[in-house]
Amino acid sequence: MRRLMLLRHARTEADAPSGSDHDRRLDERGLSDAAEIGGWIAAHPPFPDAVKVSPAVRSVQTWDIVWESMKGVAPAPDAKQVEELYGADPAVLLHVIHAAARRDPQRLLLVGHNPGMHEAALMLTGSGNAAARAALADNLPTSGLVVLDFDIADWRDASFRGGRLELFVSPKLLKAGQRG
Question: Hey, which residues does 113 pair with through a beta bridge?
């Protein structure tokens, strides 16, 4: 069994001072939402063994805040920036998932961007929680977290429609007292 967690970066400023999309930083709500989703992850093990993060500033900041919320509760995962995650489509995301087989984590967290993260979540889901599927159907919002389980022994066997959607959670759903 393998668990995949897909986390979209937190909310950002509209434009970076440099003018580069890659350099956009989290805004005040993004800072707060990243801490909230990190706190939620810290309270709901099992924790990721490996984390792959887009090198965009907003993704790195999101992971740093999430990890800060988890420190002291979760063991430190093997966290790496992966250039391919910046702007990745579902096929590239699946390639990154397959590449995780080299280190063979049981639980893998990817931190990245829409539309690829949302599209991948939908494409990887073959079954699972009906409420989560309905909540996820239209959007993976900033700081949204999707958890999929795969009945596989090796990440190279992960496939589209092969995952079971266990849950979908976001700061907005948490504030409403819900979770998909």
Answer: none
pLDDT tens per residue across span 63-88: 999 999 999 899 999 999 999 999 99
Tell me the HSE value of 132 on the side-chain side, using a 13 A CA sphere: 21
Q: If you write DSSP's letter for every residue of 15-66 in order, what string do you get?
A: S-TTS-GGG--B-HHHHHHHHHHHHHHHHSPPPPSEEEE-SSHHHHHHHHHH
Place of tokens 């639980």: 107
**CATH classification of the domain holding 55:** 3.40.50.1240
Q: Indicate the angle between helix axes 28-43 and 57-70, nearest 10 degrees.
A: 40
Give the residue carrying structure tokens 């950002």: 12
Strands 145-150 and 163-169: antiparallel
What's the rounded Cα separation, in Å, for the pair 140 and 117? 8
Taking only the tens place, the pLDDT of each residue in 92-151 is 999 999 999 888 899 999 999 999 999 999 999 999 989 899 999 999 999 999 999 999
Number of domains in the chain: 1
